[in-house]
Amino acid sequence: MVKLLGALIALLLAVPAAGQSLSMVDLTRVFHMSPDDLPEFMRGKGWNGNTTVIDGDAFDMGWQYNNVEDIVVKKSADGSKFVSYRLHRQEDIDAYRANKINFDRFEQLPSNKKNVEIYRHKFILQMLTTNTTKGTMTIRYEYHPEAEFWSRLIDANSKEDTYAVGTFLPQEGGVVIGLSPDSAEAYIVAMEDMKHGGGCSWSSHKDDVEGCFNSNMWNKANFDFSGRANSKAIYKYVIDNKEAQARAVQLACDYRGGRHDDWYLPSIAQLKMIADNKNDIDATLRSNGGISIAKVWYWSSSQYNETMVWSINFATLIIGQSAKDGHDRVRPVRSVKLK
């Protein structure tokens, strides 16, 4: 009986907790760990892994707990690597900022976003993004060995007046919503909705569109900035299937605002950029003859699964999903390369 009780206690102690926030020490360890050691470490913290893709030296891993906090670890074939982790409690955010170890070796770089701080130490980038509406802070560590990345980043973020979020650029046909993750492009949102504010469907078919992002995991979708590639794949799919009605991607890609022909349906990460800065973007739209983002659901080009698509309700700023044959609105986006 005693042996049985002892074995039961040992078994219970071996089961990880339901999930615990990572300390800054943990986060540093995650950044430097090999893909072989990461899964065991995260499981020991009570986190659930949902994606592991390993291809040679490159890998892509993600974990979640409580369906709220998430961490993503990626390494590309070119040697670049990043870890992204969101803090949801103010005490954790305050503790991170108070710890001088997190900043002592880093030089602060200029940022063109009020809610983003950028720091550099050798080849390591540390980016802090604060969402005052949700009370969260995302910490992003990146390792970039190539000098071109740093020159591009510094150049892009030094153009504060030109590419600041909420800036109206008439020559580009709309308002700046942010920069791409590599700071190589600025994203521009159109001055109006398509169909004079009317809704439309995404597709009448329920298939996985080849070449278009597809994942039901938010910690993956949150980093899908491939609206242009998604739209190209969806447009081909719609044409190949001879869908009679004008679909969301067709309305976006056929838009010619500012006399540009490279508009597309934004990915969910790009659509979220608009949601995160809705008040500033709306104010610029209205003051320059545009139309505010309506308080309704808007389509993204990011698939959730075969039948659903990631979307955002701009009345509540809730990120959710819409059925492909639903009736959401369309607001196109285009990309501008930064020289």
Number of strands: 15
- Provide the gyration radius in Å: 22 Å
Helix content: 25-40%
Q: What's the N-to-C terminus distance?
A: 74 Å
Low-confidence stretches: 1-19
Number of domains: 2
Strand content range: 25-35%
Q: What oligomeric state best describes the polypeptide chains here?
A: single chain
Average pLDDT number: 81
Topology at a glance:
Elements (H helix, E strand, L loop, with lengths): L1 H13 L9 H9 L5 H7 L3 E8 L2 E8 L3 E7 L5 E7 L2 H9 L8 E3 L6 E6 L2 E8 L4 E8 L3 H12 L1 H4 L4 E2 L4 E6 L5 E6 L27 H4 L5 H14 L7 H6 L14 H9 L1 H10 L9 E7 L4 E6 L4 E6 L9 E5 L2
Antiparallel strand pairs: 1-2, 2-3, 3-4, 4-8, 5-6, 6-7, 7-8, 9-10, 10-11, 11-15, 12-13, 13-14
Question: What does this molecule look like?
Answer:
The chain is an alpha+beta fold. The protein has two domains: 16-157, no CATH class; 163-337, no CATH class. The chain is 29% helix and 27% strand. It is built from eleven helices and 15 strands. The chain has helices at residues 2-14, 24-32, 38-44, 90-98, 147-158, 160-163, 218-221, 227-240, 248-253, 268-276, 278-287; strands at 48-55, 58-65, 69-75, 81-87, 107-109, 116-121, 124-131, 136-143, 168-169, 174-179, 185-190, 297-303, 308-313, 318-323, 333-337. The strands form three sheets. An eight-stranded antiparallel beta sheet has the order 1-2-3-4-8-7-6-5. β3 (69-75) and β4 form a beta hairpin. The chain is globular, with a radius of gyration of 22 Å. Residues 1-19 have low confidence and may be disordered.
